[in-house]
Every structure is written in C-alpha cells, then in structure tokens.
C-alpha cells in the first residue's frame, strides 16, 4: 500500500487515547486511514492487541466528520459469530462512545433477544447494530426493515476466520451481497487473528465484484506465546488414547494454584465433564471459585461463569470451544489445554485467552492424554514459532443455503429473478453458479422440483409478474423458525424431576441410557427418570449407579500442517534434544528396535500376526478423516482382487487392516490398492455412498427447508428427522436423479467428510515415499494405540475391553523388558 499522509485524529479520539495512557498502534492508524479513504479490507492482528478499536473507530471518525445528523438511523452493522460475544461487544462499543462524548445508540439482536426488544429494534434501529449471520438473515425477511438498511455505511465482521470455512460463511456472503444491493457505497471490513490464507479470506469477504482489491491491514506487533508441555514423570512404552489425561491431575492442579486465574480447555464436552468432576473430588474446597462452561449448560449458568471470570470471583474454569472466541477475560493469567490441540490455529486462539491485552504474553500449558501427543505439542510449538497457520477454505455452491436465502428474500420485499441472479453471482460462493442451476433453484422454491411438485407444502414461493414472493403465513412462520445453517443431533431440555432447568443434552445420548445408568453433568452424577415432550427429567444418582461417559462431540483430526511437523519431529527423534522427545526415549527405542521410526519422506508398514489374524498397520500421519478414507479404499480395492474380508480402523497416524489368518497381503498389492487411478469412483464405491450421502442429506434437507424440525416446545426427535429426510432422499433419488441437492450431498461427503483433496495428496505422498516394511514380533508402540482403540470400540463379548487391553499391555511390557536394544531392520521399497 503506498504511503499516504496521516490524517489528524479528531480531538475526542485523541483525548480518548490520552486519558488511558495509550498510543494508537500503527495498524490501527492504517485501518482508520484506509476506511476514511473509502476502502474495504481485512484487519489481521493477534488477540488482545486492539483489533476492535481498529475496526470500530474508522466509521466512528467518519460519522463525526459528517456532523451530528450522520448518526441518525442504522449506520454500522457489526457481525459476530457467537451470541455470547454480542454482549461483550455491545459493552465495549458503548464504553468507547461514552468516552468520546457521543450519545449514539448501540444495540444487539441475536437469538437471545426478547420479542419486545426485537420489535423495538425493527421499528427504531440503533446507530450500530450487533448481530449474528442467522439474525441478519431473519431481519431480511421483514419488508419493513429492508428500507432501513439503505442508510448503512459499514459492515464489520468479527472473527471472520470462524465463519469462512462453513455454511455460516456462505450465508453471510449472501447477506452481504443483499446489503450491497441496498446500499451500493457500503464498506466492508473483517477481523481475524489466526488464519493462514489471509488474502483469500479478504477476497471472499468482499466478493469477486468488489470495485477495488481489499486493503490488508496487518499488525507488526508480534504476540509472544509461551507453549509448554506437561511431561509426565514416567511414560508408558505402549500408550493408548485417553489413558494419561486424568493421571496428571495433581501437577495440573499445582499449576492452577500458582496462577491467579486459569482456563482449562478440553476438546469435547464429555472430557470437560470428566475433568470438572475429577477436580471437584481432588479440591472440594474450590467450590465457589471453580466452574464448568460448555454449550450444553443453560444460558444463565454460562452468563454467571463469564461474569465470574471478569470480576475475578472465579479462579479456574474448565471449558470447551464455547470460550475460544473474543470475550475479553483480562484477569486470565494462564491457559491449560488438555490433549493435543490438533491444529496450530486452535492452540494459538486458546492461548490468546490469556494475556488478553497489548504487550502481555499469552501462556498455554498442554497436557497430553497419551504419550505421542507430546510430539504433537512440540510440533505445534515449532509451527507457531515459524508462523505456519492452517488455512480456512471457503465453501462454494451450497445450494441448500441459496434456497434458504431465496425464500428469506421472497418473504421480505420479494425479488426479481434476473436481479437476484446477478446479485448472488457477485459472491465468491456462487460466482460459478450456472444459469441452468439458477433456474433449478427457482423451480425448487416454487414447485419443489420435478419429484415434489405434487406436494403443496413444497410450493413455498409464488411468482407473479416476474416477482417472487411468499404469500402463505404458515410458510413464513415455519421458515423464520428454521433460518440458519447449524445442524446437529437433536438436543433435549434437561430438567430436574422436581422442577428447574439444567440445560440441554443430546437426544442420541439419552436414548442409549438404561434406567440404572448415570451420567456426569456440571459436576453431578445424574440418573434419568423419564423422557417426555423432548425433555429429559433427571434426579441425583445413587452411589451404586453405573457411570456412562458422554462421548458426544467431534474429535478434530490432526491438521495437515501439524501432521507435517509431527512427522518431521519423529524422523529427527534420534538426535532431537526437545524435552518432549527426550521423555519419549524409552518408547521410541522400543519402536526402533521392534520395527522402525519413519522419517519425513518414509512410510512405515508393519505386518503382525496375532490370534485375531493378520494385521497391516500403515502409518501415513494424514489425520483421522483421511486415514479412514484410505482404509476404506484399500480394503475395497483389495477385496475386488480376491475373496477376502477386512476389518478396518484408523487414527490420526495411520490405519489398520485385519484379515483372516490364512490370507496374506503383500506390500506391492497394498501399494497398488493405494494408487490414484479411478480414485473418485472407487472411493464412492468403498464407502457405501448411498447411505453416507443419505446421512449428509439430512443436514442439507434441514437447511433447504425440506424437513421441518418442529415448533418450540414440540421439536421433532432425531429419529423423526432422519425418517423424514431419508424418505425425501429416496423419493428424489428414484424420481429426480438429477436433483442438485442429492448431488450436493455426495459432493459434501467427498470434500468435507473424506477431505478428498487432502486424501488425494496423501496418495501422491504414499506413491513417492520410501516404504519401510517391517514384521515386528508383537504390537509396536505406534500400532498399539490403533489396536487398543479398535478393541475399545468393537468389543461385543462379555469380556471387558479394559481386561483384554491390560493383558496385552502386561505381555508387551514383559517382552520389552526382556528385549535387547537392537538396531531396527532396514526398510524395503
């Protein structure tokens, strides 16, 4: 960007900074100057360095210079990815306006807003409105509100990196296109802290039709992040996922006691519940200063926890991604991450919750839940040091989102087909939308498409004289209730049988409970009493209750970037002096002696025979999702060449194929099975694409309005939604095979579930790698976690999986004690 003369700040802004002893950061001045030149762009700066003021004061200064009347009507729209952030953002913006002596109004409109507040806002909007993508879409459905958006001067998108790789990002792209049509001079600014593809993110935000390239405002201030691993005193030579974790609770608690305030992040809600309950048992005196925070807890409980963090009454909180973003917890001194973060960006985002102020370092202590996670932690530290951050790839041609958007606009002022086509193709998401696909969308929202045209409930939009509108009150009501792209397993309200709300819980989990089973929730062991009207009523469980862990919540796969660094460090294990690798010396020695340690450009294949049969363990370090695809592909292709049945399993490091004892697969056969030839067709065949696509179609059907999830208080169950969407899928597949939503379901499975692009790259890496083929005498440290995870998941006999696993551990440890430390055998290509 060419250097321009810096504008003098208004007296009120200069006083605002002087009174606080602050000096505007260079990137803040750059952002204000760019805004006042009429530019749009992206602000990238570490968490806690002043991004909010960088984005906010540009439009404020502009309105100040325009005079008092400039702030009349809705002028600034602030988009936040989470409702929880809206309250903090509102408070921050209000405080800055008060300090500047301005009486402009700021309000928020989210799913938590009351009906009366929503009505007041539509009638008399504030100067600045804080809202979410979903609430913005909802506002566009009201004809009386769209004219008020014509006065907009600026849209600010907070935490853009959290939206860009999802359908929520696509939804926002479409809303921004509509805002630009209403207010052609609209300026758009995004904010981001942790993202690798900055330029692409900015271009997606502004759209391909932007009159000028986006301005990139990047902070020169480097946020110091201290990443430390908690290394156990002793490490098992044969680790398995999850077994360390709680055994390290005492050293974790000692770290908590040394800090004034701590956030303990876990990767799943079930893990958060287990840690919260364990800490309560270990430190009962912490009651009142210690809390739990995750998305299933009631809003009132979460609000209390957030308030306790801010005022300092809480010194420790166990949480999930519910506290990842933006909320300003200045008192937090340290962050503890339980388990591998699985991604560099995620770790930096969480670390940024501490030291959330300019000049203060962020500190994070990583606690491994199994031994190999020590390598991942060291890899994450190295990647962060080298500024290798994951990219967030934008989604394209999500026709379910476009269908929903079209019905929303038809509910509002209505739309002209040609005008709206021109509008939506000015977004990155739909720049490639063909005229034929657009005509299909119009037919779908008016008649339900070729297969559903005889069902009146799918005739949602009416076309009259070239204008598309909704004239059915029931359609309008149901559509407004269903706006959004976030779909998940149905949740049930969780209440005491004696009265009082606890929060929500997944219906799929409750459906698996037996009457005597208990489960952890917010530090208590609860027992199910009854289920009625999508509400689970519970009581405190007896001491004899069998505890059922809640394994709900996705396990994020190892990112490509972190996978590469992990593989590099393992390859350097022989001469690497990092404390994490030194701590693993005994484990790595066994791995090298019994098999081999693969280097960065090497692939390890372990062939082992047990009473179960013949095992092939192939270590690609490509992440769980990719390894699951590779396992399915290899098993299917091999089964086409000979009569053989496989059991397959995968983790982040590799996959296992298990066959009968009399069947032997050679490395050459496996190499052929992992070629890129006819990849797409064979992958579709290997995963039972019809069933997989049907599951994905359930989400698409909800977003596109093909199934209705129910009215408040009478939501449909997951089983009902599955049945409805499955029936629609079957009808469309049979009678409308060219239906674009059915085609989209398979595309999403391939691209996002199986990560087709990453899988394709993994196969290319496999083809050019040196293969180390070994025949270990028994399960090695690398393959044992894969075996243990499969046993835990697939054991159906009366024998407890823990007993079987312990017997195997005892056998392996005896063999390791007796085994001399010999050099690994040479690999063969």
Description:
With 829 residues, the chain is α/β, with parallel strands linked by helices. It is 43% helix and 16% strand. It has 31 helices and 29 strands. It has a 7-stranded parallel sheet, with helices on both faces. A 6-stranded parallel sheet has the order 8-13-12-9-11-10, sandwiched between helices. A 6-stranded mixed sheet has the order 18-17-21-20-19-22. β3 (106-109), α5 and β4 form a beta-alpha-beta unit. The relative contact order is 0.09. Mean pLDDT is 85; it is low at 822-829.
Helical element count?
31
What gross morphology would you assign?
globular
DSSP E strands, number: 29
- Secondary structure category: alpha/beta
Helix content: 40-55%
**Major pleated sheet:** 7 strands, parallel
Query: Any idea what the radius of gyration is?
Result: 28 Å
* Distance between the amino and carboxyl termini: 51 Å
Estimate the strand proportion.
15-25%
Q: On the 0-100 scale, what is the average pLDDT?
A: 85
Low-confidence stretches: 822-829
Strand order, main sheet: write it out.
Answer: 3-4-2-5-6-1-7
